[in-house]
């Protein structure tokens, strides 16, 4: 991902926070010449056994994901291969009317993280169940209502043979935080103020990130 200097993450915590807050990743891997690349949307969490409280530079962290074993992507996913995970954070259109200057051009403010890592397929049924349970705990804690999975563990065990779980050891990560940094301060303030007043959740979330810029 090409990231101009002024759109780089202010520090590594921005990248980690974006992943935790937007865990539905697009996993991309090279396919054969006939099939082309594979791309699958799937939930990703930090491995609670090794990287639960990870907050520094991302290389070295381990992430967990899973997909349907019927997906051809699973058959093509090999231990030792490289996987690209892309995460998208708050984003929104910026109309030149907000700038209050002429000439001007519209643009799109957006936030994204690209993570590369080495894959380890998890073939053990018990470890696969562990990935599913860890994913439930992470997402119920962050986005849910504290659902107790105890009475559904038997159901989990029945469907687990159809689940392809994997671990990714991160080797590199890039963050793009395009938040009007190229604009003069007074214009950037007008964009942030406009977004903050909007009824659109994406605009308000973008304004929140803009307010954190150094």
From TrEMBL:
It comes from the Bacteria. Pfam families: FMN_bind_2. SUPFAM superfamilies: FMN-binding split barrel (SSF50475). PANTHER family: PROTEASE SYNTHASE AND SPORULATION PROTEIN PAI 2. This is Transcriptional regulator. It comes from Streptomyces monashensis.
